[in-house]
Amino acid sequence: MGMNVSRQVDLAENEYLKRFVGRDHVPAYNDDFWNSFLQYHINLPTNSQEQLSLDSRLESLCQSFIAHNLSSGNFGSLVNVFLVKVSELLALSDAESTVHIWQAFNALFIIRCLVKYMIETGSEYQLLQHFEALPVQSQDDADVEQGSEAVTVAVTGETRTALAKLIDGTKFETFLEALVNIIVVIPVKEFTYHLHLEAVNCLIVLLSVSQFTQQGTEKSTIFRTIYKCQHANTLMSALLHFLSRMTQVPATMFGFGSGGSFVFGIAESLWSILTFARKQPDVLTAHDLPAAFKDHYPLANQSLLLILILTNHYTTKDNPYRVSLFGCADSQGAADSSASSKEPEQAVTFKIDFSSLYNTLCRIVTIDQTTLLLYLLLHRNQRFYKYVMAQQNLQQLVIPILQTLYNAPDSTSHHIYMSLIVLLILSEDDNFNKSVHEIILKNITWYTERSISEISLGGLLILVVIRTIQYNMLKMRDKYLHTNCLAALANMSGQFRSLHPYVAQRLVSLFETLAKKHARLDQQLRQPAAVAANGDAVASTVAVPIVAGSNPDDMLQDLSVLEEVLRMVLEILNSCLSHQLVYCPNLVYTLLYKRNVFEAFRSHSAFQDIIQNIDMVVGFFSSRLVRVQDQRGELGVNEVLEVISKGASQWSSDRLRKFPDLKFKYVEEDAPEEFFIPYVWTLVCKAGCVHFSSESIRGVTTEIGC
Predict the structure, then answer these.
(1) Are 372 and 308 in contact (CB under 8 A)?
(2) Helix 413-427 vs helix 368-380: angle between axes, to the nearest 10 degrees?
(3) Residue 43 pLDDT more than 80?
(4) 474 pLDDT exceeds 90?
(5) Pairing state between β 351-352 and 329-330
(6) Mean pLDDT of 541-559
(7) Does residue 89 carry a pLDDT above 90?
(8) How far is CA 420 from the centre of its chain?
(9) pLDDT tens-digit profile of 403-458?
(10) What angle (nearest 5°) sits at the alpha carbon of residue 540, between those of residues 539 and 541?
(11) Which of 349, 353, 378, 90 is nearest to 232 (CA)?
């Protein structure tokens, strides 16, 4: 088009665009037209406002295209031009292929814009009609010239019916294969970067057809074609490598700067490379990490989103992409050892450097979509799970996850939930639970509740999970969130060691907070009966009034849930005392100091058995403290801890009643698609480089919709 499309020009008046969307057929072999048509440069829309601006400027052209393409077949010509350019790329040298890649990108960008428009405003069948449409008029040999006008072939109803039968999806399959070839065959270089990005974006747009229709994906030709792709392993491998390598977006597109001639653009780009060939700053240190990742690493970002789309559809059916992701292995590792595990061995689908992938995930794990991919890999890929569990720098992965939970008000409920699930999956490994207490952290500045100069990673994990439980009680009131928080703490409790005094205080304070809540709720349930028995005068003496509109059945259910949570907290304390008492003097100290919080539950049938164990520990150390105090007088904190440490060496856990070890394992829901598909498409809308019409897309969560 010979212009910079990012400028505010009237696209509807461009002669090449008008001809492309017009009535007349432009054959694919008309090199003069296509070479001119595809010589433009564009700054891609970076946000929904820019996308909306571009869409509005293309609206009239798209409408003209829809009206004429079924008879002109120009979309098919453009697709054919694109296919030819892609097929020729591999035979060209880098110097020769630059212009080819530029024009292939421009062709693909136009195709994507039109496909997106058709998906958002029409049906999948209409989209495939336009892919397969053949020209029903000719301006070449079949035309009879009469002056300056051509006599066109008449189009009858029978002709259109016959043409409709030709829509078998063959051209679409060829187009899809070309997209895959761009991604998996052409190496990513500075001048190919945007072509790779556009191919990934185009696949995302095609898969978005599921979000603009009520029809199930099992009836979708697009989905069937993509999910029967024979190159699922190589495609998944390429996408995961794009993410792992995190190549930064080039400063220029195909040698262009903000404008100017093509040749000058190349020279300018080379000059800047020669002049400023120094390490680029790490832009991910920016405050807004998701935006920095999207803006500076769009190929990694879009590849990550495409991985999530491909693996979360068809979760209960044959999904080659899911099998591929869950079967990948470490290219740098020793022979696979999964055969020695109790679980069946996964077949190797492709290999990738787990070290590079792990380091990348650690860098960006606070981003919502990264947490979701990490969950999939840890939950379903045995080899990657074992690799992570063997790392000596687990704090690089765990601390960012804890920061996400700590900053819960700034995160979505889905992100909080998935971060907790990741911690729960990690806590299923005994070595993890042991090693987190051996990793010592200093000056955790983002934890502002209390200044802590030194704490173990395990201690910090306990603090943040307890804080999440308390946040949930106040804001979210999600039973499943409580369950997963407590399950992670329970899995770790048998390995609690060297707990910081503040960590011990928070553990016991958690029980104290829940106990007070239980007392209030129990009193509210008893109050109506007291009022009925003693008259209205009693009401004025009751400390906690009934909440207006409270339903007794709901309150009973809340009380039951609260008792389950209290029981679990007691089991966590008991597990630590049963297995690690000698290593946790600060916890014993806190239990001695706060012994009264258990008073109301000693006679409660739901807690009696386990509180007996806690009472036995408290009684043992209390009697020792009394004897020492009788000899020395009042004891200071350090002296009390000294008495506890000496007493611990003489303590035998055989005195305690035995309870089953606390072991919880995460199990995915029976119908995971109901949760994950809306979640994934919400992330595509929120965090992706492709911006969809929010008015017509369905399925995304309202919390963070497009």
Answers:
(1) yes
(2) 30
(3) no
(4) no
(5) parallel
(6) 56
(7) no
(8) 13
(9) 999 998 888 889 999 999 999 999 999 999 999 999 999 989 999 999 888 999 99
(10) 90
(11) 349
